[in-house]
């Protein structure tokens, strides 16, 4: 206890207003609990509007997350990037945190429902269904991401939590969201559904069991759709197009005049995925046998194209973020590992 008192004093000296925030960031479970008992504001935020909940999720501390939720932390609060706590947990691929948050939200909803029940019912009340509890807690399971994070985050505008969980391959979260009433047929701004955005075949199967229908792909259009899905970052769509007969090494071509003459073959779907930065699509294509040595009409293989982008990042570091650097490293590993 003496040690905790010393820590709390040190935290207050650093900034009395944000002592709880600092304790959460440092992962000090006992100190967090003590500060809450002493009346600390569990909904305090930093300059990015990250709350203690957001920080606990980012730190991966489930125990602190649970304490904050029990103390009444606002699970619907958004940070500067537009993420609620559940959204952030999905984006950071923290499925255990998603489960803790959804359980807390359902508990809050059930308490709201119970408070509105007749105290002398003629028959024993039935416990509310999870979907009813989520609604009662004020959470829209099918809410769309409105943007605000800039960069890659803004490309997610119009997507739902189910779409994001599907894109990340978070199968447990996908199943949970479907059980809570997530709309499996919803489309994002690019008209893509959760099944088209799915990271892998296993995620697609879970979505199908939840009522998702596979998009119809005419045989004459399967290669065109393969390219389209690669551009949009729809790994699930790529897998579906390949299953429909699309050629994994199909070369897309353009015409350099309006008459359709001088056709020049340009690139494969793998070239597109590498250029656009769609790691799940790269993984899907390479696993399906995409030729990493195929050359575009510019003479680039997917690997040489990636290395050119890496060199560009070194020359112009301010044009790239840390996420691009991580992406380059992951793709380089995949392409090098599968190099023939």
Rg, Cα atoms, Å:
24 Å
**What separation lies between the terminal Cα atoms?**
61 Å
Say how many strands there are: 2
- CATH topology heading of the largest domain: Serine Threonine Protein Phosphatase 5, Tetratricopeptide repeat
| Helix content percent band | 40-55%
The overall pLDDT average reads: 81
Any guess at the CATH architecture of the largest domain?
Alpha Horseshoe
Going across the major beta sheet, what is the strand order?
A: 1-2
Number of H- or I-type helical stretches: 18
**Global structural class:** mainly alpha
The CATH class label of the largest domain is Mainly Alpha
What's the overall geometry?
A: globular
CATH superfamily of the largest domain: Ankyrin repeat-containing domain
Order of helices and strands: HHHHHHHHHHHHHHEEHHHH
Percentage beta strand: under 5%
pLDDT < 50 stretches: 315-323
* Number of separate structural domains: 3
Q: Major sheet: size, sense and barrel closure?
A: 2 strands, antiparallel
């Amino acid at each position: 206890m003496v040690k905790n008192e010393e820590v709390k004093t040190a935290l207050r000296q650093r900034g009395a207003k944000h002592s709880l925030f600092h304790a959460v960031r440092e992962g000090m479970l006992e100190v967090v609990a003590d500060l809450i008992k002493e009346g600390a504001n569990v909904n305090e935020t930093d300059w990015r509007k990250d709350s203690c909940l957001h920080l606990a999720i980012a730190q991966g501390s489930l125990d602190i997350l649970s304490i904050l939720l029990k103390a009444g932390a606002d699970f619907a609060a958004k940070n500067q990037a537009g993420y609620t706590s559940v959204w952030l947990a999905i984006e950071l691929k923290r499925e255990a945190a998603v489960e803790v948050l959804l359980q807390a939200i359902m508990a809050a909803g059930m308490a709201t429902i119970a408070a509105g029940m007749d105290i002398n019912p003629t028959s024993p009340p039935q416990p509310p269904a999870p979907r009813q509890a989520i609604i009662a807690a004020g959470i829209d399971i099918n809410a769309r991401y409105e943007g605000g994070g800039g960069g890659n985050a803004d490309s997610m505008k119009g997507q739902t939590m189910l779409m994001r969980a599907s894109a990340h391959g978070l199968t447990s979260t996908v199943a949970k969201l479907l059980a809570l009433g997530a709309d499996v047929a919803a489309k994002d701004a690019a008209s893509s559904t959760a099944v088209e955005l799915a990271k892998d075949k296993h995620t697609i199967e879970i979505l199908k069991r939840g009522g998702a229908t596979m998009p119809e792909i005419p045989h004459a259009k399967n290669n065109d759709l393969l390219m389209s899905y690669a551009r949009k970052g729809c790994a699930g769509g790529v897998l579906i197009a390949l299953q429909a007969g699309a050629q994994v090494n199909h070369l897309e071509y353009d015409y350099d005049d309006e008459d359709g003459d001088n056709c020049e073959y340009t690139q494969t779907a793998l070239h597109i995925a590498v250029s656009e930065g769609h790691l799940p699509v790269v993984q899907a294509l390479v696993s399906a046998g995409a030729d990493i040595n195929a050359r575009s009409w510019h003479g680039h293989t997917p690997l040489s194209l990636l290395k050119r982008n890496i060199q560009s990042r070194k020359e112009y570091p301010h044009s790239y973020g840390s996420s691009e650097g991580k992406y380059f490293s992951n793709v380089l590993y995949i392409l090098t590992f599968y190099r023939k």
